[in-house]
Amino acid sequence: MLEMQTFQMDSFLSGDYKKELAPHLAEAQQKLQSGSGAGGEFTGWVHLPRNYDRDEFARIQAAAKKIQSDSQALVVIGIGGSYLGARGVIDCLCSPNYNLKSKSTPNVYFVGNGLSADAMGEVLDLLENVDFSINVISKSGTTTEPAVAFRFFREALEKKYGKEAAKSRIYATTDKSRGALKKLADAEGWETFVVPDEIGGRFSVLTAVGLLPIAVTGVDINALMQGAADMMNICENGSFDCPAWQYAATRYALYRAGYSIELLACYDPAFRFMTEWWKQLYGESEGKEGKGLFPASVEFTADLHSMGQYIQEGKRLMFETVVRLGSSDRQLLVPHDADDGDGLNFVAGKSMDFIRDKAMEGTLLAHTEGGVPNLIVKTDGKSAADLGGLIYFFEYACGLSGYLLEVNPFDQPGVEAYKKNMFALLGKPGYEDRKAELEAKLQK
């Protein structure tokens, strides 16, 4: 079961902050559970692990089996919440080297999350001699990066199989009834899955958005949803027995005490894209109206040899949330060296997990003594159920945190600013006046 712990927090926070924040958390709890707060129309994820569409879930599993049977690769086209969660789960449960491993399931390539010709061209090259399918994920179908990528990969698919045969290899995850992608999918006869109206992109990993790519890799999505459901039951409690309450309260109290950056850390490189998902979740949910913690991430122990100096002795403006995932799947013991040339025989016979845990404990002590508060999120292990629970925990704490800040945690108005400028500079119809204005500014 997931646990939330703090370490020597009395050194950083004075008074009983939990008692002070309890009524505010209770109010935030009520808003999340009832959907009555700001952005409440986007809180469908709160009860999703219990109320998800079983018929669509079965179709997701059937589509995953079909892709496994007829494809050596799946191209997942999406950006932001349309890919980060799925990639995080796949890396964490299957390995960051998933595509390099010998296996019976297809490779999974994530594209449409940037504008690099080299990156896109490399994936196109990798697909030349393999059977592949596409899962294009977009609520509207007009988001620039995935829409451009879809043009390239749809063309490659239709060139390989012909337009008619290609239709059975395209899966569109989009709006249930409207939008450019939905209209195109219906006209072409592609199988479609739904991006729910009541669930925003960064909260959508446990919908078809994340579940189809995850299922293609062979991950047990039933266990993933059960883990989320178990955590949902805990979060419904509405008290400090709930780890999401503990996390939301402590990080908010630290924010009020002047800490402006939260570092999410893990001692497993497979967790890297889970931290990327977490950064979007908290950055888009809290960063508005001049408020919010800046979400950053570090990978330990690697970053202890790069960022470690700043964390230990730099400006005191950050705290760490460390995710501890439990035992590794493989237990490796350090070999004995008769010559002991490196002087490391004192760890011979000890497991890598043991050494990692001691590094974790040593870092916890050093950083805390150096003035960096530490929170620990601990899971029993790294199973699909564990990860489902962790995902829901972070989502629920994020909703609580947004309401503590008195912002709408479920909108992202600032995301549109760069898009308007990009559209104008690209010459999109209707942006002519803005184009001239921006080009003049760029010349200054």
Quick tags:
12% strand; 444 residues; five-stranded mixed β-sheet; alpha/beta; 17 helices; globular; five-stranded parallel β-sheet; 10 strands
Uncertain spans, ≥5 residues at pLDDT below 50?
none
**Structural class, from secondary structure content?**
alpha/beta
What about the largest sheet? 5 strands, mixed
The helix tally amounts to: 17
What is the overall shape?
A: globular
Radius of gyration: 23 Å
Structure description:
The structure is a single chain. With about 450 residues, the protein is of the alpha/beta class. It contains 17 helices and ten strands. The strands form two sheets. It has a five-stranded mixed beta sheet with strand order 1-10-9-7-8, with helices on both faces. The longest helix has 21 residues, at about 385-405. The model has no long low-confidence stretch (mean pLDDT about 95).
